[in-house]
Amino acid sequence: MSIPVGDAEKHAIEKIENVDEGENPHDRTDPVEAKKVLRKIDYRLLPVLMALYTTTFLDRVNIGNARLWNMERDLGMKGYQYNIAVLVFYIPLVLFEVPSNMLLSRLKPRYYISGLCMGWGLTITFMGFAQSYAGLVAARILIGVFEAGMLPGCIYLLGAWYRRHELVTRVSWLFVSNDIAGTISGLLGAGLGSLDGKAGYSGWQWIFFIEGAMTCLVAVVSFLFLLPFPEQSTFLPAEEKEWLMKRLSADDRRRSGEKIGVRGALKALSDWKVLCTGWLYLSVTVAAYAISIFQPTILSAFGWSDVKSNLLSAPVRIASGIFSVSVGIWSDKVGRRGPFCVSGFTVAIVGNLLVMLVTKSGVRYFGIYVAAIGTYICQPLVLAWGMNQVVGETKRGVTSAFGAGFGSAGGIVASLVFPKKDAPRYYPGIGTCIAFSFSGIIASCCMWVFCAWENRAKEQGKRDHLRRLPEDEQAKLGERHPDFRYTL
């Protein structure tokens, strides 16, 4: 994959391209040479993270496909029990994502992230042997414990390798994994479910057996190839690594090797920008999880067969993936996040209104496309935007973890607002998605307006008195430093 390098920084950090110019004949002042180095990183890092996150999302939503292949009947499930089985997965995600990044800052990613992947892969595999509803719920909780560290860990690792205005493009590619998983999930749900009765196992069991084994294989691959943090990496030549570390430090005054401690994490959680990132991601994930988990159920309410519902869920994710990456690249090129977030949430609202209010199945299906495109445009943007607004390993790690963790509560909300009794219109569930998208517009405007106001104050010299502080005190200012500019 060839990913353009963002160049929207319009203040002092752009000067890093000329650091030590003339000292080394192999320096990266040439933009073409700079792109070559970044593409080396892209080709080594992104495919592994995408494979990991594909299995993450595939394994958390495959219960939606399993439901269509006699899972509830075989396990004697009734009423809201399916919704509860979906819900309990998200509780450990909310609780453990910040502590997980604290661990990751102290461990090698290949050991920690690969170990998590192997843990939930084995759990998914053995979940196929569940004999009761209680066994299914216990397995879902354990999967949530292992998966809690995956998304914040991937975002944290990306943030360690790229500058702020190169990040959303890479996060967009990471979230293409959602679309790959959504596409594969529908196809696998139709294919593996058709094995119903083979070797005495139901279709839902085959879904868990095969997809769990695939996850274990990805865990082995990630152990072999996943990159460490840049300061620990050896795959780049010495002069390229030196150039990379200097440009990263100049971008946001980061200090390499910083570990996330409890005191630093608590302090970061008191920052309104970190809290706003969590709410923004929650506003996205309510609709995102509804689309991922309940889309086959909603499509079957159109009167379509289970196989057709599974298959027609795939093109929706392909379309949303194309738009997500395209908008991510555009956002990095212009160095802006707010206008794209507001537009994405607005498009999602329009799509959900079509699904909720129109009676024709074809138009409602088109509405799902529109809702998915708007939702998945916002998903990488809001997490990258939050990390753009903070300085330091601790704040970046906490921002990605808190955003992902608080956003996981969207899965809890989505799992409760789509009961079968509301079919075929699902007014409460779709209305909830619309309400959260509207709250996302409000939160985006708050982030946008405040940060624009603060940037203007710095440009007018109203924060220049901080330059009189001792150098060690200036280093602790983070985003309050007069040279730092928020991303709008």
Structure description:
There is one protein chain. This protein is mainly alpha-helical and 488 residues long. The protein has a single domain (12-480), classed as Growth Hormone, Chain: A (Up-down Bundle). The chain is built from 19 helices and no strands. It has helices spanning 31-66, 71-74, 81-88, 90-104, 109-127, 133-147, 150-161, 164-193, 203-225, 238-252, 262-269, 272-300, 306-312, 314-334, 338-357, 361-388, 393-416, 427-459, 471-475. Helix 1 (31-66) packs parallel to helix 8 (164-193), helix 7 (150-161) runs antiparallel to helix 8 (164-193) and helix 11 crosses helix 17 (393-416). The chain is globular and about 70 Å long. It is a multi-pass membrane protein. It comes from Trematosphaeria pertusa. The chain crosses the membrane at residues 43-60, 80-99, 111-131, 137-159, 171-192, 204-227, 272-294, 314-331, 338-359, 365-386, 398-417, 429-453.
The CATH superfamily turns out to be MFS general substrate transporter like domains
SS-based class:
mainly alpha
Strand content: under 5%
**Count of helices?**
19
Gyration radius (Cα, Å) is 23 Å
Largest sheet: none
Oligomeric nature of the chains: single chain
**In total, how many domains does the architecture comprise?**
1
Q: How does the overall form come out from the CA principal axes?
A: globular
Q: How many strand segments? A: 0
What's the average pLDDT? 85
Low-confidence stretches: 1-28
